[in-house]
Amino acid sequence: MIAFVDGILAAPGPDAVVAIADGAVGLDVLVSERGAAALPAVGERVRLWTHLSVREDGWTLFGFPSREERTMFRLLVTVSGIGPKVALGMLSGAGPAEIARSLALGDEKALARLPGIGKKSAARLVVELGQRIPQELAAVEAATVAGHAPGADRELEDALAVLTTMGLPVARAEALLQTVREANPELASDAQAWVRAALGGMDAPGR
Fold first, then answer.
1. Domain locations along the chain
2. What burial class does residue 38 get, using C-beta atoms within 10 Å of its C-beta: 0-12 exposed, 13-18 middle, 19+ buried?
3. Between 55 and 123, where is the model more confident?
4. What is the pLDDT of residues 157-167, one digit of tens each?
5. What is the DSSP secondary structure assignment for residue 120, as one 8-state letter?
6. What's the CATH architecture for 67-136?
7. CA 83 to chain centre
8. Half-sphere exposure of 53 (CA within 13 A, CB side)
9. What are φ and ψ of residue 26, in 5° steps?
10. Distance between alpha carbon 74 and the CA centroid of its chain, in Å?
């Protein structure tokens, strides 16, 4: 219904106010803590992609600094027991690419660490969403693994090619490599080491 809000930031924080129509109208927009941290200074122009939640007790406008964050929000609220406030809390604790990686890997422990999520909710999220990651979120996750610069990490790309050739789904291979990259940055110049470490991660408890 409302795709985005483009205006002047009148009040910062999770309960942001964006002035539109030359300041004649101010809209209350709820954003995640991460989203609030990304807001510009008061008085500067801001664009937030939005989702309008309509309930019997009122209408609430949620705002997101990127379309990918909004896509993840909309995906999360399709799960029973995950309402808009819980989904926003999850996005306060992790970015859309991080959540997509946890879902693709079935990493219930990582999901359970997010605000408002317990073991049962984490398990439900993996079951219902693990195979439903939208392409735009998979692309964001891939960019995260590749260092946000195509060709910047040739060894990492080679390792990804080896893993997918071995039959691993692209999303899982990327997630494994991202986990290895965070834990072992010293492997950056050795594609074979990336592959060995990723395969070792598959055998680790809880994988």
1. 4-65, 67-136, 146-207
2. middle
3. 123
4. 777 777 777 77
5. H
6. Orthogonal Bundle (1.10)
7. 17
8. 20
9. -120, 130
10. 11
d(CA 157, CA 173): 11
**What is the distance between the alpha carbons of residues 166 and 189, in angstroms, rounded to a whole number?**
21
Span 4-65: which CATH code?
A: 2.40.50.140
Residue with tokens 């994988």: 207
CA dist., res. 31 & res. 48, Å (int): 9
Instruction: Provide φ and ψ at 49, rounded to 5°.
Output: -75, 140
pTM exceeds cut of 0.70: no
pLDDT value at residue 149: 39
Which residues neighbour 44 within 8 Å (Cβ) at sequence distance 6 or greater?
Answer: 8, 9
Are 158 and 191 spatial neighbours (Cβ–Cβ below 8 Å)? yes
- Total residues found in the chain within this entry: 207
CA distances, 9 to each of 33, 56, 68, 140, 193 (Å): 16, 28, 21, 27, 47
Chain segment 79-125, per-residue pLDDT in tens: 999 999 999 999 999 888 889 888 988 889 999 999 999 999 999 99
Residue 140, φ and ψ in degrees, nearest 5: -65, -40
The phi, psi pair for 154, rounded to 5°, reads -60, -40
Query: What DSSP assignment string belongs to 13-33?
Result: SSEEEEEETTTTEEEEEE--H
